[in-house]
Design a protein that fits this description.
The protein is α+β, with helices and mostly antiparallel strands and 307 residues long. The protein is built from 10 helices and 13 strands.
Length: 307
């Protein structure tokens, strides 16, 4: 049996959908662009759900995370799978950097490395302080509350001194189960939006601007956010590339989400290294650069397969 060079990972909803919509069509298009770019490099490519029960993960050289957008809802199962499959093949991005990036405590590491981030305060699982007590101690009037392990704005809430009490019971339940974080609300997320800069093999390729719908602050399309073409400044590109270099190892791909803070300075809101939307449909050449980076890795490594 000819070994598979790369498995592109998705999730069951998108593996072989019977019915589609505009959202799913974009998922399929993004994965198609990556698959075609890899195949142009004469690689044997397969696309599978990450939890496919029938595939032998020993038979592929690389596993490329793309649209595994249910991992944060199945975190325990996903973590076990990650450990198991990471012993059978090579993950892109690597298992090491994925474990680091899954938990937003990585923001502290970036800050320690000199990268400007949105100010962040972490509350560990079991913390008994109330939201009111935390806001008083921090001196923040408007904040955003979110889990340390999350995606698609899961349990993300905008708080202020008048609405905190409405979230106390919810927060008490959440903090009993998982670590949470507070950040001061950045006003320009509403007025300017959030930039996503794509960095492939350490080099900027393209960017988009995400904006929340009127009356909301969440820029994700799940909540009505919209996407626009964006031409970043050299300062913004340098900021994104330097943030990627500050990661615990250089990822093969990264999405660097940047906002303007309340002092009108650039700050990292997050770096996505696991399964970010990379908007290859806005720059097909970025998929080509990703494929070439994988080829370079293949050329410099040897593999043993259990077939």
């Amino acid at each position: 049996m000819k070994p598979i060079d790369v498995v592109i990972l998705t999730e069951k909803r998108y593996a072989n959908p019977v019915e589609t919509n505009a959202y799913i069509d974009n998922v399929l298009l993004e994965d198609k662009l990556v698959k075609e770019a890899l195949e142009k490099e004469e690689l044997n490519v397969k696309r599978l759900a990450w939890d496919d029960a029938y595939f032998d993960w020993n038979t592929t050289k690389y596993v490329l995370f793309r649209t595994t957008w249910d991992y944060f809802d199945r975190f325990s199962e996903f973590s076990s799978w990650l450990t198991e499959v990471g012993q059978k093949t090579i993950l892109l991005n690597s298992a090491k950097i994925i474990h680091w990036n899954i938990d937003k405590h990585y923001l502290h590491d970036l800050s320690t490395a000199g990268i400007e981030i949105v100010p962040t305060y972490f509350m560990e699982k079991g913390d008994t302080r109330t939201l009111s007590e935390l806001h008083t101690a921090l001196g923040w009037e408007q904040t955003v509350l979110k889990p340390c392990v999350s995606g698609a704005a899961r349990h993300t809430y905008k708080l202020n001194l008048d609405t905190i009490h409405k979230h106390e019971i919810l927060y008490k339940n959440l903090i009993s189960e998982e670590a949470m974080m507070l950040q001061p609300f950045m006003n320009q997320i509403v007025t300017k939006g959030e930039i996503s800069l794509i960095v492939i093999n350490g080099t900027y390729t393209h960017a988009i601007l995400k904006k929340a719908k009127a009356g909301d602050f969440r820029v994700q399309d799940d909540f009505g956010g919209s996407v626009y073409e964006y031409n970043p400044s050299l300062a913004e590109i340098d900021f994104a590339e330097n943030a990627v270099k500050a990661c615990i190892e250089l990822p093969i791909y990264a999405r660097v989400d940047i906002i303007w803070d309340n002092d009108d300075q650039l700050a990292i809101s997050e770096i996505e290294l696991i399964e970010p939307e990379l908007w290859f449909r806005h720059n097909n050449d970025a998929a080509t650069q990703l494929a070439k980076g994988i080829v370079k890795k293949l050329e410099t490594k040897s593999f043993t397969f259990k077939i």
